[in-house]
Write a structure and sequence with these properties.
One of its GO terms (molecular function) is toxic substance binding. Pfam families: Cloacin_immun. InterPro entries: Cloacn_immnty_fam, Cloacn_immnty_sf. By secondary structure, the protein is mostly helical. The protein has two helices and no strands. The chain has one domain.
Length: 39
C-alpha cells in the first residue's frame, strides 16, 4: 500500500479511504469523515 500515490485532497494518510470508497470528498465530509475512515 505504501507504493500507492496520494490523491490530491485525500482524507486518509495513505489515501486508502478515498480510493476504497470511491466517493467524492463531499461525501466523506457529509458522512462525518472520521466515521468513514474506520474501514
Amino acid at each position: 500500500m505504501a507504493e500507492r500515490k496520494k490523491p490530491p485532497g485525500d482524507f486518509g494518510e495513505d489515501g486508502t479511504v478515498v480510493e476504497l470508497l470511491e466517493i467524492p470528498l463531499a461525501g466523506n465530509i457529509n458522512n462525518g469523515g472520521l466515521d468513514v475512515r474506520r474501514e
